[in-house]
Amino acid sequence: MNEPSGYYESNTTLAQYLEFHFGESWHGEANFPKELADAALGALDGRASCRALDIGCAVGRTSLELARQFDHVDGVDYSETFIGKCREVVREGVARYARPEEGELVSYQERSLAALGLTEAARRVAFHQGDACKLGADYRDYDLVLAGNLIDRLYNPSLFLEQIHERINALGLLVIASPYTWLEEYTPRQDWLGGFLKDGEPFTTLDGLKAALSPRFRLLAEPRSLPFVIRETRNKFQHSFSELTIWEKLPD
C-alpha cells in the first residue's frame, strides 16, 4: 500500500490548514469546512441527527460545525499532527498558529471557539487518529458520514466505499466532497476511481462513485461544486473546487 505523505504531518501544512478552517476568508470564497457542514446538515431534511462521523476531519472545523445539531460527532484523521491539534483546540477553546507569510516570516494568529459560537458544540465532539480504510468496529450506527476532500488521498478508495455502508444507519446519509485530484503519491494508478479512459471512453470519478455505491445507496441530488481557497503564504493561494455528492443508504 502507499503510505500517506509526510506532507500532512508538517508544521507548515498544519498552519495552512488551521488558517483554512479557522482563519480569514480569501478571494471572496466562504469558509469551506463550514460550508461543507452546512450542506450536510441541510441535506438531513428531518432525518435523525444523533451520531455523525467526519472522516478525514483535518483540523476539525467541520466536525465542530456538525455538532451544532448532532448529539455526538466523531472526527477521524490519519494525521497524528492534525488530531493532536484538534484535541488542543477543544481543550483550550482556541486555535493558535504561526501563519506563513513570506520565507521564514510568520504572523501569529489566534481564533477562539467562543467567537465562532462553537464552545457548546465542542463538548459533543471526540477526535481520533485512524485509517479511513481500516476503521475499528466501534465506528458504526451513524446517521451521517462525511468524507470531505478525502477519497483522492486514500490508498484504496474502493475499499473505503465498499465498507462504509456497514457504518451508516438505514436511510442515513453519506456525503462526499472531492476535487478528484488523483496522484500516484497517494493512490496507486490502478486504484483510482476515475479520471481515465475505460473501453476507450472517459470514465470520471463520479462514474466510479456511482458504480461503487449504487448497490447500497442512491444519489439524492445532482452533484454541485463548492469552491475553496487554501492560503499557503501572503502571495500564494490554492483556489480549487470540490464536487459534492450526497447519497442515501437504502433500507437493508
UniProtKB/TrEMBL annotation:
CDD domains membership: AdoMet_MTases
Any Pfam family the entry gives: Methyltransf_23
One Gene Ontology term from the biological process aspect of the record: methylation
UniProt-listed Gene3D superfamilies: Vaccinia Virus protein VP39 (3.40.50.150)
Keywords on record: Methyltransferase, Transferase
GO molecular function, one term: methyltransferase activity
InterPro entries, per the entry: OvoA_Cterm (IPR027625), SAM-dependent_MTases_sf (IPR029063)
NCBIfam families linked: ovoA_Cterm
Name of the protein described by the UniProt record: 4-mercaptohistidine N1-methyltransferase
Species whose genome carries this gene: Marinobacter nauticus
Organism placement in taxonomy: Bacteria, Pseudomonadati, Pseudomonadota, Gammaproteobacteria, Pseudomonadales
